[in-house]
Amino acid sequence: MKPQVVFVLGGPGAGKGTQCSKIIENYTYTHLSAGDLLRAERERPDSEYGQLIANYIKEGKIVPVTITINLLKQAMEETMKKDEKKFRFLIDGFPRNEDNLQGWNSVMDEKADVKFVLFFDCSNEVCINRCLERGKSSGRTDDNRESLQKRIQTYLQSTRPIIDLYQSQGKVRTVDASRGVDEVFADVKAILDKEG
Ligand SMILES: Nc1ncnc2c1ncn2[C@@H]1O[C@H](COP(=O)(O)OP(=O)(O)O)[C@@H](O)[C@H]1O
Ligand SMILES: O=c1ccn([C@@H]2O[C@H](COP(=O)(O)OP(=O)(O)O)[C@@H](O)[C@H]2O)c(=O)[nH]1
Ligand SMILES: [Mg+2]
């Protein structure tokens, strides 16, 4: 079965991870967070990219796609090898820029079908406040004001144009992510039920 992919996008702190966790409780999707995969690679003792990834994350910059796409491809292959029924994926926090998109198109485009983009729409202010709150316990190197300013800039300059591109292809499903977790999830469910 060809992998079926939903890209999950939105600003830092929009609630991508939170909503993906809720989705996998209710639907047969596998959640792959590009950020989580990069953080795991950063911590892997033998990784040749650990330091590079650490620098990019702290600076709110987007890691070169050759690194990210291999992590995603490997995770998808491992998932499907273990259980052939697990061919539906939520790819959270990717593609974030033109380089990401090109990397996906050259490595994965023929191997997987991108069904649509689930876009969590939220003001920058709400995004920043949620990340600062998360930063009290997340231990993340980028949940601080300085990194957040850069992450928001990267989001506006690099990621929004990717969302706009998918929008022009009629592939974006937008959810107002500024509301409470359960209200947001009600809309997410309606979208997923409709998409089948
Ligand atoms: N709808 C919501 N309302 C309030 N807080 C939220 C909501 N969704 C997520 N959060 C909180 O905001 C922070 C960022 O959420 P997260 O799901 O990690 O977002 P993202 O993956 O988009 O960065 C977390 O601390 C999370 O608990
Ligand atoms: O495809 C990706 C996904 C994430 N990141 C890096 O990882 C950080 C954190 O991403 P994550 O999705 O975990 O953050 P979130 O938006 O969920 O807060 C980003 O700011 C980038 O520096 C990246 O380079 N490429
Ligand atoms: Mg996240």
Automatic annotation (TrEMBL):
<dbReference type="GO" id="GO:0004550">
    <property type="term" value="F:nucleoside diphosphate kinase activity"/>
</dbReference>
<dbReference type="GO" id="GO:0005737">
    <property type="term" value="C:cytoplasm"/>
</dbReference>
<feature type="region of interest" description="LID">
    <location>
        <begin position="133"/>
        <end position="143"/>
    </location>
</feature>
<dbReference type="GO" id="GO:0006207">
    <property type="term" value="P:'de novo' pyrimidine nucleobase biosynthetic process"/>
</dbReference>
<keyword id="KW-0665">Pyrimidine biosynthesis</keyword>
<feature type="region of interest" description="NMPbind">
    <location>
        <begin position="33"/>
        <end position="63"/>
    </location>
</feature>
<feature type="binding site">
    <location>
        <position position="179"/>
    </location>
    <ligand>
        <name>ATP</name>
    </ligand>
</feature>
<dbReference type="InterPro" id="IPR027417">
    <property type="entry name" value="P-loop_NTPase"/>
</dbReference>
<protein>
    <recommendedName>
        <fullName>UMP-CMP kinase</fullName>
        <ecNumber>2.7.4.14</ecNumber>
        <ecNumber>2.7.4.6</ecNumber>
    </recommendedName>
</protein>
<comment type="function">
    <text>Catalyzes the phosphorylation of pyrimidine nucleoside monophosphates at the expense of ATP. Plays an important role in de novo pyrimidine nucleotide biosynthesis. Has preference for UMP and CMP as phosphate acceptors. Also displays broad nucleoside diphosphate kinase activity.</text>
</comment>
<keyword id="KW-0067">ATP-binding</keyword>
<dbReference type="InterPro" id="IPR033690">
    <property type="entry name" value="Adenylat_kinase_CS"/>
</dbReference>
<keyword id="KW-0539">Nucleus</keyword>
<dbReference type="GO" id="GO:0005524">
    <property type="term" value="F:ATP binding"/>
</dbReference>
<feature type="binding site">
    <location>
        <position position="134"/>
    </location>
    <ligand>
        <name>ATP</name>
    </ligand>
</feature>
<keyword id="KW-0418">Kinase</keyword>
<dbReference type="InterPro" id="IPR000850">
    <property type="entry name" value="Adenylat/UMP-CMP_kin"/>
</dbReference>
<dbReference type="GO" id="GO:0006221">
    <property type="term" value="P:pyrimidine nucleotide biosynthetic process"/>
</dbReference>
<dbReference type="InterPro" id="IPR006266">
    <property type="entry name" value="UMP_CMP_kinase"/>
</dbReference>
<feature type="binding site">
    <location>
        <begin position="61"/>
        <end position="63"/>
    </location>
    <ligand>
        <name>a ribonucleoside 5'-phosphate</name>
    </ligand>
</feature>
<dbReference type="GO" id="GO:0004017">
    <property type="term" value="F:AMP kinase activity"/>
</dbReference>
<dbReference type="GO" id="GO:0005634">
    <property type="term" value="C:nucleus"/>
</dbReference>
<keyword id="KW-0547">Nucleotide-binding</keyword>
<feature type="binding site">
    <location>
        <position position="39"/>
    </location>
    <ligand>
        <name>a ribonucleoside 5'-phosphate</name>
    </ligand>
</feature>
<keyword id="KW-0808">Transferase</keyword>
<feature type="binding site">
    <location>
        <position position="140"/>
    </location>
    <ligand>
        <name>a ribonucleoside 5'-phosphate</name>
    </ligand>
</feature>
<feature type="binding site">
    <location>
        <begin position="13"/>
        <end position="18"/>
    </location>
    <ligand>
        <name>ATP</name>
    </ligand>
</feature>
<feature type="binding site">
    <location>
        <begin position="93"/>
        <end position="96"/>
    </location>
    <ligand>
        <name>a ribonucleoside 5'-phosphate</name>
    </ligand>
</feature>
<comment type="subunit">
    <text>Monomer.</text>
</comment>
<dbReference type="Pfam" id="PF00406">
    <property type="entry name" value="ADK"/>
</dbReference>
<feature type="binding site">
    <location>
        <position position="100"/>
    </location>
    <ligand>
        <name>CMP</name>
    </ligand>
</feature>
<feature type="binding site">
    <location>
        <position position="151"/>
    </location>
    <ligand>
        <name>a ribonucleoside 5'-phosphate</name>
    </ligand>
</feature>
<comment type="similarity">
    <text>Belongs to the adenylate kinase family. UMP-CMP kinase subfamily.</text>
</comment>
<keyword id="KW-0963">Cytoplasm</keyword>
